[in-house]
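new request in #modeling-help
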Amino acid sequence: MSNTTFGVRRRGGGDIIFAITNYSVFIALAFLCAYPFYFLIINSISANDVSALGQVRWLPVDVHLENYAQVLQLNGLPMAAIVSIARTAIGTLAAVLASAFLGFMFSQSKMWGRQFWYRFVIITMYFSAGLIPVFIVMKTLGLTNNFWVYVVPFIVQPFFIILVKTYVEAMPESLQEAAEMDGANILQIFFRIFLPNMTPILATVAIFSAVAQWNSFQDTLIYVTDQSLYTLQYLLYMFINQANSLAQAAQNSGGNLSGIITAATTQTPTSIRMTVSVLVVLPIIFIYPLFQRFFVKGIMLGAVKG
Amino acid sequence: MKLPKKAVAVASALAMVGLLTSCIGGAPEAERAAITEFPDKWDDEITIDVFDELANYMGVQEGWFADVVKKKFNMKLNIIAPNVAGGGDTLYNTRVSAGNLGDLIVVGKGKKLDELVKGGLVSDSSPYYPAMENVEKFDTAVTHLNDGKDGVYAFPTSVSSIKPTEPSEGIDPTFGPYVRWDLYKQLGYPELNTLEDLLPVLKDMQDLEPTAPNGAKVYAISLFKDWDGNMMVTAKQPTTFYGYDERGFVLAKADGSDYQGLLDDDGEYLRTLKFYHEANQLGLVDPESTTQNYDTMWSKVQNGQVLFSWWPWLGQAAYNTDANTAAGKGFELAPLKDMTVFSYGAEAYGAGPVITIGSKAKDPERIAAFIDWLYSPEGTYVNNSQTMGAAGPQGLTWDLDDSGQPALTELGKQAFIGGEAEVPAEWGGGSYIDGGSTLNVSAVLPADVDKETGLPFSYKSWPSYQELVKTPLSEDWKAKMGDAPTTMDYLKDNDQLLVAPGASYTPPADPSEIETLRNQVKAVIVQYSWKMSFAGSEAEFDTLRADLQEEAKGLGYDKVLEFDMETAKAQNEAREEVAEKLG
Amino acid sequence: MREYPASRGAAGDDMTSQLVLQEVAATELEESPATEKASRKWRRQAGGRRSMGMFLCIVPFMVLVFVFSYFPLYGWIYSLFDYRPALGLSGSEFVGLQWFELLVSSPTQVAQIGQVLLNTLAISFLGIATSVLPLIFAVFLNEVRAPWFRNSVQTLTTLPNFISWVLVYMIAFSLFSSSGLVNNILNDAGLITQPLKFLDTDQNVWLTMTLWGVWKGLGWGAIIYLAAIAGIDQSLYESAKIDGAGRFQLMRYITIPQLMPTYLVLLLLSVANLLNNGMEQYFVFQNAFNKETIQVLDLYVYNIGITGNSLSMATAIGMLKSVISVVLLLTVNWIAKRVRGQSIV
């Protein structure tokens, strides 16, 4: 651990003041960030009419679990959960491996056209062709109503590649030189030397990718109509979007409200939306700490250097 | 060896041509022989994609309605709802550009439908039309809708045998000044001559009940921001009390007697803004109005924190619960002496949305049979939206009583009055409310009369139902209103209803220049409308008004107004024509 | 960055060597070493066998990039039409540059767009200015000794990232509306008599929007730096410690310089995003009173209904933004090359 090395140092008065300040600031920050989530939790279990007014702030009022029961009873929820888990696992694995490999390869100045291809990839972050041509490409490739639409378009992700490349470039050159000396080829160098030493940044990429995969619903919306491929997020999105659909309908109607009366009288309680939000975030909160250990395992490159 | 080779060549050439033509898609298929009867049985089960611009639910239809459709047509409905999906026309555009919108399509007529027909995305139902006995009853509307198209491409919705000069609404109007009747009663039913008279009355009502049961402060008026379109939505509503409705930036009176620009100095829209402004000065307007959405406002009405509503389907639907009405509390119409409430007449040739069959539909014949069924009495009872009073399947939620009158069954009472009921397994099981049709489209208007019973399809208009829902509140209101049985009856009897004849008029789509100008101008109008309503003083109100008029004009308001004015007049001509012809 | 002895090129008898040889042969044929430049290239080809092999390894990925990102760009042609998807491109009317002209068709409109751009840039620059916060956060969090505390803080501070803007607004509404928590507390304390308008005011909108953004992204953004810190060669610390460096000196001379490459790359990437603030945050927070100052480009485009109604106009705007972003990226990159002697991309 990076800090244990310093842990044995003597602690002077300055250190103590520093520690107190540091801890207090972080406690304050943690509170500021955690409170809203706490707010969501207490509202999701409070009486719906009270929480709709935003008056539940410190303690839940009239605790009940009906919101959770209602959400968990949604049709197709188990299947959607499986799809979500599958896309998160497979999509993340693919993105992590591809980013690690490409980030590493783009750090190899000897690669033919390195600069060009790196830019070729990075620039795609800054433009988009618009939905329709992309949709037609997906459809042509047979990716509509297909599980792989959740994975294939997300394999190459410029941002992750940048992260990995920057990280690799900060690693000592001696790592690669030593391996080359031993006659390893580029793939061997990647798999044997670099991949095991990239865990912190790969953990970062994994978290980013997993969260993006887990939270994504737009792709289901556009590319999927087959119910067996619905994701959890999509199902929940559909469930809570009634209020939005009402505003949308009102605006589309050009002022003729006779058409939206049918929907205007049914409202999704705000607390249901909060319930959904809590349910979606919980798995992330439980899994995130598992990744955290990768952040503190600093590599002792000195050993390799010798 | 030569011949076979040639034959192969010819065959493959033919195959190529075949492939090509099938790829082109729009090419007409071989003329199908017209059928005069649909089969009773459908062998294999299919799931069709229903692209439905009215639906508020996305996914496969479940529950008792799914059960009915499955039994009759061996078919499942997978609803695709752009309103739920959000993002405007995103879903429509992507699906259309890929050449397949859906098997069954509910879409707006006018430009959209015309393009779909032209682009070959919807199919001609002529071969099935002779078999569609139920639709045929509305042949005039079908013919009118498909006028100028080479075939039967679309079916009209909300059709009826009601005259276009009669209201399309059932027992409640769409608009109207609704107040908390219990407080109004406590004040001794003060007389309201005109809109502005509401201010002191609302003030007194607010003083009578300054805090709601949940401890929150009561405000007579609570506005919301998320529906705003061409104008501030809540500011337009009071203009409907005087018979106006919007046509772009024009407020047009239902009878064609007046057209106002939205920003006219002495117009109704600015009058409403002034009304809100004064109300706010009196402390009657919820200060959270500027930042809240419809759902928050709805909860406030539900909790008794709001005393005024522009619509029965807000005030009454949210607040008039069993418990409240039994205690004499609730929203009821408080007529203004000079009001003439706008009402949508029954559309002679159907309303805006239409039903059509996609050109790549899996089994067009079965879909045609399904569409036809939607227009049958059974389909009408079953499919229409529950809030519009669809009675559900006969034998389940309602039946004819001994005297041959329709009446709700126990389960019907539980479902419609109690709010929830469990459906027996032989009807598919599950919750009745959740199992209702998610198509959200009325093929036949619920207010239309069922020839069998002689009463409207909507149970809300049945005498047996009216008897059921008598409450101290409604009795008090009726007594005060000269024993009018329903709000609609009261308005009609007192000549306070102005029906815009249902001409099924489709406004032309904005040319792109107008569209762009409009989008800019409307943003400014909405923004200033809010600022004016919450202006700190009369002087500030006037300054803002002048600024609004100037800025809107700078962005091209006049040009858009001119366009809208023409449309409004064309609309009125259509109304007069239909009133003369069918009224 | 690194140079490899040519001899080692042959060392890896990797799986693609067959292909590599063919590929190299092809390249050699293509390039006639006539000019000096070309001949330099030629010389580098001496060690080029493996570099071509390396390239071949990434070809499948480049194909993906091309298919999903470059190929669909043909859709930009829609910006010259009044594209109606139902009719296809052939059935749609060609309108030339009409959509681009419409953006600047009247003085009022130009003024409006000016204000929108001002908002966009202001909020973007504030965003860039605060982009150093996650770095500071990570550096100081790294100084926390107790692992449980460090992990808890890390987890808790990422929470806001997972709350959608719609719900963030609900929370904001509950806390800051005129009957919200903050006003109630201030009122009870007798500090105010009239509720303060936090949400419906045009005061400090840029700042508050930036603060909401910081709040939501701080912990999440710090993950990258925490990973980078974990990757720092520990021997650097050890030798510095032997030289007697204190805590702040270690931070200043080792940790921060080691994070700089990552920070600068992210910074430059965000500069290229000047015009892209996204719209969800501003959409949920907008109302008639702050619209003037909250309307960033993405929201403006949404508000005036362009995205919903005219695909072609949306394409035109998307295209303009794409081009500007790429130009910005290349400019920033060029400057970085000048200043740091090393380009970012």
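bot summary: Residues 6-72 of chain C form one domain.
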